[in-house]
Amino acid sequence: MGLITGGVILLATNGTNSRILVFSEDLFFIYLLPPIIFNAGFQVKKKQFFRNFMTIILFGAVGTMISFVIITLGAMGLFKKLDVGPLELGDYLAIGSIFSATDSVCTLQVLNQDETPLLYSLVFGEGVVNDATSVVLFNAIENLDIGHFDALVLLNFIGNFFYLFITSTILGVATGLLSAYIIKKLCFARHSTDREVSIMMLMAYLSYMLSMLLDLSGILTVFFCGIVMSHYTWHNVTESSRVTTKHTFATLSFIAENFLFLYVGMDALDIEKWKLASSSPKKPIALSAIILGLVMVGRAAFVFPLSFLSNLSKKEARPKISFKQQVIIWWAGLMRGAVSIALTYNKFTASGHTEVRVNAHDHQHSHCCSVQHNGFWFAD
């Protein structure tokens, strides 16, 4: 859809004005991401999710770390041979965290929650925890003192990571419980569909905004807020509110996802980026091939060993992850989506804002921006 829209705009403007919609990470993180993640938490089948919780955390958190290490080390070793410009250690670490953010949206469209409950809950759960882990990792790297890197800095980094992970989850659960309490106890909020739906939506958004204000992971917070709300708040509202909330959240999520695809597809047809890339086509293609290879290796390096570990720890009655399912889980995480794009823009543009045309391609302000940017684009 995005590519078709971008193509139509290109034809309509004779290839001149391709920058009608420009990707803005602020818009993405504040307006588009929360409804998608919240709805994911709200609709998840909780029994399956918590039954496989340890495996999901293994894949989503430990797996992302393994993938991050492999991509970072691989990029450090292979990018130097390509002469892509002056990249520092912080840049390599950022690249590792950006490309360890999977996007399992398309796989979830194919899998059926009722036919393959184990596979669906693993792919879905890992996708959400992985996105949150990648964003937390990225934020931790941004605050890292690379100039004085030693064991203490590394320990501080790991401590910061776990602190963000745990506090974000607690905040989401607390907000969800608070919304249930407000709807159950306060008279103005009860038995009015409009007010009940509004309170649920506003409380969900409040959890996300609070999390962002406190520099925590908004994704994790709003996801767990969604889970708690569907378990407690949803059962305290009237029947009409239940139907309304379910459809409202699903609709908002669907609109946000489509808007994202439109956004990315149109941005991918930005003629100026292609002009920059075509001046030396070999480099972006080589970069893309390296990153794609590293993503595949990084993914395989944790899916198969961690599945083996997970199967060992499972009781006889529990279904194990078959080899065929392991291959699907490996394949499901090879896509890189909007979170990767937003983080890339955040790191590799001058002021973090790509609305200013010069920022997207400026050599002076943003080292390693032009060719890498296009390299990333091909990879994406």
From TrEMBL:
<keyword id="KW-0630">Potassium</keyword>
<keyword id="KW-0472">Membrane</keyword>
<dbReference type="GO" id="GO:0015386">
    <property type="term" value="F:potassium:proton antiporter activity"/>
</dbReference>
<dbReference type="GO" id="GO:0051453">
    <property type="term" value="P:regulation of intracellular pH"/>
</dbReference>
<feature type="transmembrane region" description="Helical">
    <location>
        <begin position="56"/>
        <end position="80"/>
    </location>
</feature>
<dbReference type="InterPro" id="IPR006153">
    <property type="entry name" value="Cation/H_exchanger_TM"/>
</dbReference>
<dbReference type="InterPro" id="IPR018422">
    <property type="entry name" value="Cation/H_exchanger_CPA1"/>
</dbReference>
<keyword id="KW-0813">Transport</keyword>
<feature type="transmembrane region" description="Helical">
    <location>
        <begin position="161"/>
        <end position="183"/>
    </location>
</feature>
<dbReference type="GO" id="GO:0098719">
    <property type="term" value="P:sodium ion import across plasma membrane"/>
</dbReference>
<protein>
    <recommendedName>
        <fullName>Cation/H+ exchanger transmembrane domain-containing protein</fullName>
    </recommendedName>
</protein>
<feature type="transmembrane region" description="Helical">
    <location>
        <begin position="328"/>
        <end position="345"/>
    </location>
</feature>
<dbReference type="GO" id="GO:0005886">
    <property type="term" value="C:plasma membrane"/>
</dbReference>
<dbReference type="GO" id="GO:0015385">
    <property type="term" value="F:sodium:proton antiporter activity"/>
</dbReference>
<feature type="domain" description="Cation/H+ exchanger transmembrane">
    <location>
        <begin position="2"/>
        <end position="344"/>
    </location>
</feature>
<feature type="transmembrane region" description="Helical">
    <location>
        <begin position="28"/>
        <end position="44"/>
    </location>
</feature>
<keyword id="KW-1133">Transmembrane helix</keyword>
<dbReference type="Pfam" id="PF00999">
    <property type="entry name" value="Na_H_Exchanger"/>
</dbReference>
<keyword id="KW-0406">Ion transport</keyword>
<keyword id="KW-0633">Potassium transport</keyword>
<feature type="transmembrane region" description="Helical">
    <location>
        <begin position="204"/>
        <end position="229"/>
    </location>
</feature>
<keyword id="KW-0812">Transmembrane</keyword>
<keyword id="KW-0739">Sodium transport</keyword>
<dbReference type="InterPro" id="IPR004709">
    <property type="entry name" value="NaH_exchanger"/>
</dbReference>
<feature type="transmembrane region" description="Helical">
    <location>
        <begin position="286"/>
        <end position="308"/>
    </location>
</feature>
<feature type="transmembrane region" description="Helical">
    <location>
        <begin position="249"/>
        <end position="266"/>
    </location>
</feature>
<keyword id="KW-0915">Sodium</keyword>
